Amino acid sequence: MNENMIYDQCIKQFGIESQINMAIEECGELIVELAKRDRKINGSNAYSICSEIIDVEIMINQLKLIFFNGLSTPEEIKRAKLINLEGILRE
Description:
Number of domains: 1
Order of helices and strands: HHHH
Strand content: under 5%
Structural class: mainly alpha
Shape: flat
Number of helices: 4
Largest sheet: none
Radius of gyration: 16 Å
């Protein structure tokens, strides 16, 4: 199975609401790891942060399949956002 097939299968097997809730949970776990780094609590390290980044990335890819269905492509929206960011950097 390729990556998108795995994401699609997760959505089908666990359901849309479950995957949205999982995305929220994974984002929260990333936030916690980043906060630990800033406060140096419980020894959060780069590996823990990287692991959570990947978990969030996996969930974001599933969210793209759920929410971009029939809308602009993620690439189109990302391109517009990057053009906007580039304009801000030039100010």
